[in-house]
Design goal:
The chain is built from 15 helices and 7 strands. It is mostly helical and 320 residues long.
């Protein structure tokens, strides 16, 4: 099969033709091929069209139906036979595999279909990047954070079974490039970014137990809202754009948040930032108790001298 590299939709018919050729030519494993054909049957029965049914009143139609059913029964005992037949029966209906069914995010097995489409770009990696941009815009509505989270899970799940090193390295490069571009706001960071990530990219994941404990103490001592999710909390340390509905609600005082930023960016030097953007970055990460932005001057000019609370906050943050 000649791959149409400029076709960026995730279409079952397109995927089936590629996977069919891969398996028939012994370029795909039995385990993957079985998963593909089983999932394809499920999807076609649910969303596809019946190719034909028996018309008992028409002799030619009945004979055609019976002949195809006989061939199907003969070949469906083996996986190779199922692929070579290229159609299947369910109850009294016959379905073709190469049907045009556009697969959406809500489609069952979307992660698998997405991965199968990705691997078609092995021989034209430049188009793979265009495909990712297309899916980011069309399927994920330009939600880069959510899309990158999804792609990272794809790599973890399918790197050993579907993706080869070329695909994996290209996707990794695309993610790093997008993170680099979106980590900045006019050349400045869009959220906090731990310096540790520069030499230890997996730091947040490997130290999740430590960060979870930091989150718990920030909640208990009324610095951030008690309903804050751990996944949202660690986002603020990645340096990427954070959707407004994922920003952390700061329940402490304005001065508390100023101390938070001063400690991480200056006293401990744990995060990267451009000096004059510190308060812009704070607003990219946090909202006040009314779910509104603070404004950079509100934080910069905040006052207060509760030394005990400052030391408490710093002792919590020191664990990061």
């Amino acid at each position: 099969m000649d791959v149409n590299y400029s076709y960026y939709d995730i279409n079952l018919g397109d995927i089936w033709l590629y996977e069919h050729d891969q398996y028939i030519s012994d370029k795909s494993s039995n385990d993957l091929a079985k998963k593909v054909i089983d999932k394809a049957e499920e999807l076609i029965i649910k969303e596809g069209k019946v190719s034909f049914i028996a018309d008992l009143d028409n002799k030619d139609s009945r004979l055609y139906y019976e002949r195809n059913l006989k061939d199907y029964k003969k070949n469906s005992n083996t996986l190779k036979g199922r692929f070579e037949t290229n159609y299947f029966f369910n109850k009294e209906s016959c379905y073709q595999f190469d049907q045009d069914i556009i697969i959406k995010r809500e489609t069952s097995g979307f992660d698998l279909w997405f991965a199968l489409k990705l691997r078609q770009y092995d021989s034209k990696l430049i188009e793979l990047k265009i495909f990712l941009e297309y899916q980011l815009e069309r399927t994920f509505n330009k939600d880069l954070v959510r899309f990158i989270d999804f792609i990272k899970l794809e790599l973890k799940q399918f790197s050993d079974t579907i993706f080869n090193d070329r695909i994996t390295e290209t996707i990794d490069g695309w993610i790093k490039n997008k993170n680099s571009l979106n980590r900045k706001l006019k050349g400045k960071y869009s959220s906090l970014r731990l310096r540790e990530l520069n030499t230890n990219p997996d730091y947040l994941q490997k130290n999740s137990h430590v960060l979870s404990n930091v989150l718990r103490h920030l909640k208990v001592n009324n610095f951030i809202h008690e309903d804050t999710l751990f996944t949202d909390f660690i986002r603020i340390f990645e340096g990427n754009i954070i959707p407004k509905n994922k920003r952390i609600v700061w329940t402490g005082t304005n001065k508390d948040l100023k101390w938070f930023m001063d400690y991480l960016s200056e006293s401990s030097n744990k995060i990267e930032y451009h000096k004059h953007d510190k308060w812009i970055v704070a607003n990219m990460c946090f909202l006040n108790k009314e779910n509104q932005e603070f404004g950079k001057d509100v934080l910069r000019k905040s006052s207060g001298d509760d030394e005990a609370r400052k030391k408490l906050l710093e002792s919590i943050l020191a664990k990061i």
